[in-house]
């Protein structure tokens, strides 16, 4: 090989190496190291081709060092994973699950029953029985495939309109409102261990839409339909949200015994932005993270991507962009440092002494007797040996039938902790 050719090859290799060089590591602690002692998951969504992108080395390095949970942005949606009937494409999702396992991360399954990203073969089923059977079948196959490898599934996604009514979609139109009950029941049957979540946007504050979701979930719980948590997507604008309202909304969902997951957070700013826009964005992130760490039922904060350049935002909102914690070159933005600081400050507050919530007769077990004693107290009886301070398991200030129900669910293994227990 002559010198010129060698030089050209060296330059190309150097170029390749340069674009794969690790980004400058942010100052301070990594986010997952701050979140883990708080019992919090901190995560990101990954593109389907995360492993073959031109900058995959730096992408994977930042992902592995900062986060402890990952959501596939698109790879597990039904149109991607089951494009034609009985034909499953698990390749990209398996690759992500392997990546997560190799780096000690949890996986958040996203998403099964939705109005969007559904394959034509499903959308074209017009009989209730056939559609329920198809739903049951895809859930069995997909949850069976990933059993033991996924922490939680978004079972139903975005089923509500802004006014709190059910959103029209082929599931609703062909099956009826009980399509949601069936989806959760099929998931519990397919994988009894995985957590089951309802996920939606514009429901982080108390409004007509979150009222609709709240009423549905409350009814599901009273009717014995399995559901473990609520996902607040939190795709928000630079106007931010009402943070006290957000905290109040989390409190009412926590009082139902649910876990709360911030599932898809991003904060979009103008496409032509200033330093002040970046600082405003950082402040919005800080406020949201602070409210989450203050709420024991809030279990995860997941961002909808890592660097700004791979975000979905500008393709849908052309005047907005740059919604994430890292810039296009993987440098940490002010938003990153705001999240870091909110987590670090929470870690410096001493953890409350654990209470034996639910063990209302003080015999060191939480069983059906505790549920019965709580129910007796609720109906006005004053049972012997009843330790009232341990009965308000959802910490909403009342000892009522919901507490008895939660203790009973704990006894039969449907939940393994109470929302407010640290
Ligand atoms: O599948 C085709 C692929 O074959 C083709 O090569 C490619 C070329 O453009 O398009 C591919 O489909 C795109 C898909 O992303 C995968 O890249 C769709 O056109 C595009 O609409 C789709 O957008 C995703 C969108 O959900 C719809 O599924 C976004 O990336 C994703 O960020 C967005 O995420 C949603 C959550 O799932 C639910 N909550 C809201 C959030 C933002 O919309």
Layout of helices and strands:
Elements: H1 3-20, H2 31-35, E1 41-46, H3 56-66, E2 69-72, H4 78-81, H5 91-102, E3 106-109, H6 120-123, H7 128-146, E4 152-157, H8 170-175, H9 179-190, E5 195-200, H10 208-222, E6 229-232, E7 235-236, H11 243-254, E8 259-267, E9 269-270, H12 275-294, E10 298-303, H13 313-316, E11 320-321, H14 334-348, H15 368-378, H16 401-411
Parallel strand pairs: 1-2, 1-10, 2-3, 3-4, 4-5, 5-6, 6-8, 7-8, 8-10
Antiparallel strand pairs: 9-11
The chain binds ligand G3I.
The site of ligand G3I has 9 residues, from loops.
Report on the structure:
The chain is of the alpha/beta class and 422 residues long. It has 16 helices and eleven strands. The strands form two sheets. Strands 1-2-3-4-5-6-8-10 form an eight-stranded parallel barrel, surrounded by four helices. It has a two-stranded antiparallel ribbon with strand order 9-11. Strand 1 (41-46), helix 3 and strand 2 form a beta-alpha-beta unit. The termini are far apart. Bound molecules: ligand G3I. Ligand G3I is lined by residues 73-74, 77, 116-117, 157, 233, 264, 312.
């Amino acid at each position: 090989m002559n010198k010129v050719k060698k030089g050209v090859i060296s330059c190309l290799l150097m170029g390749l190496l340069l674009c794969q060089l690790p980004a400058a590591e942010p100052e301070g602690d990594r986010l997952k190291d701050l979140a883990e002692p708080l019992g919090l998951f901190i995560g990101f969504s990954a593109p389907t081709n995360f492993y073959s992108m031109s900058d995959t080395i730096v992408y994977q390095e930042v992902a592995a060092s900062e986060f402890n949970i990952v959501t596939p942005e698109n790879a597990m949606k039904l149109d991607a994973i089951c494009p034609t009937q009985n034909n499953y494409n698990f390749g990209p999702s398996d690759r992500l699950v392997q990546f997560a396992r190799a780096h000690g991360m949890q996986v958040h399954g996203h998403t099964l029953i939705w109005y969007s990203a559904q394959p034509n073969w499903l959308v074209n089923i017009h009989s209730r029985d056939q559609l329920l059977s198809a739903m049951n079948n895809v859930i069995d196959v997909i949850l069976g495939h990933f059993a033991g490898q996924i922490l939680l599934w978004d079972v139903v996604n975005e089923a509500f309109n802004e006014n709190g009514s059910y959103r029209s979609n082929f599931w609703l139109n062909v099956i009826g409102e009980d399509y949601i009950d069936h989806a959760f029941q099929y998931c519990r049957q397919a994988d009894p261990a995985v957590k089951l979540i309802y996920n939606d946007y514009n429901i982080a504050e108390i409004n007509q839409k979150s009222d609709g979701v709240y009423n549905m979930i409350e009814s599901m719980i009273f009717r014995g339909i399995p559901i473990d948590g609520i996902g607040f997507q939190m795709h928000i604008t630079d106007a931010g949200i009402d943070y006290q309202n957000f905290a109040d909304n989390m409190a009412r969902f926590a009082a139902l015994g649910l876990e709360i997951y911030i599932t898809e957070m991003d904060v979009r700013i103008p496409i032509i932005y200033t330093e002040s826009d970046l600082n405003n964005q950082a402040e919005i992130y800080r406020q949201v993270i602070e409210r989450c760490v203050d709420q024991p039922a809030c279990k995860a904060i997941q961002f909808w991507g890592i660097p700004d350049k791979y975000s979905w935002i500008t393709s849908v909102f052309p005047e907005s962009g740059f919604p994430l914690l890292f810039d296009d070159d993987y440098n940490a933005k002010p938003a990153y440092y705001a999240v870091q600081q909110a987590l670090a400050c929470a870690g410096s507050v001493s953890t409350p002494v654990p209470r034996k919530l639910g063990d209302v007769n003080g015999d060191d077990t939480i069983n059906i007797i505790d549920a019965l004693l709580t129910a007796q107290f609720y109906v006005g009886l004053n049972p012997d040996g009843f330790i009232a301070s341990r009965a308000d398991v959802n910490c909403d200030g009342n000892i009522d039938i919901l507490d008895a129900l939660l203790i009973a669910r704990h006894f039969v293994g449907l939940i393994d902790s109470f929302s407010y227990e640290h």
